[in-house]
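[job 0417] fold request received: DUF1672 family protein
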Amino acid sequence: MLHKNNIIAIVILSTLLLGGCNWMSEVSPGNLNDNEEINTEDYYVPVQEYTGKEYTLPNGKETDRIANENREEIEEAIKLFFKEEYKTEVKVHNIVGNVDGATVFVESIGKPHFYTYAMIPIDKKQEIILTENIWTQEMVVEDAIITGLYGMAYKHEFDVLDKLLEKISNQYDITGKTNEAIKNSVGAGFSTNFYFVQVADDEPFKSILNDYLENKKMEPENLKKLFSNSGMSSEALLISIKMYMSTDEEPNKKAFEELVNAVKESNDIPRGAYSIIINKNEVIRTTGISEGENSLEQSYPNDIIKD
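[job 0417] inference complete; emitting structure tokens
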């Protein structure tokens, strides 16, 4: 059983990852790259137009320039790092300067499918990419792999969830993040336009992860047995559904209520702790964050537990 504070911390991180995929962004008009002034007309963008290429990190203007001038070198180093450390081939989508280097957003090639990121330091004085010092936050990549394996194991159940969300999206004219945004900034673990999956307790999944890192062949049927026999609780995996109004209007309460009820009543969607948010249409251009006082939300401690 997870400690209550751990769940709270992970849910907060989930919100940040959905909004901007990085702990370094704060939801504040004052949090601008290198203290640039706000142009209020450009501060927000419709979610359908947000590609993630606009994403910035504080004090990253100089390193962003250096990194993107050396993109080929960074891509090569990052691909090698993931191949050696995580036995995973990746494609690099976006490189964003941060205060000490660059944050590199990647997507796995093939299965398991997931999104994650790594950091590469930069010597700003000499404008040198420190390719030997690539690093990741503790368990960020490992947890992303676990969610990708979970997506493989429960493909049918996730297909059911996808159809459920697509139906409500079409019925009430609500939408999700673009594919480009997921690739370039907001993708986290096993992700789609409407939701992403995170690990809240990695203890039950360590042997599954070790098998993957030891290059053992992973077939969906065997994976499903491994997850079923892992002793995991439903609270060990967080499935965060995040949708947006397609037009400039307040979040639709009827759509929200139907979405909550549909998740509660479905017996065919993946196990997990579900949170649900419907936001207005616009997001902050430089972070992708959108939560506001008018957002409709059901999450911890009232998340929906599917066993």
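[job 0417] notes: The chain has one domain: 4-306. Residues 1-33 have pLDDT under 50 and may be disordered.
[job 0417] exit 0
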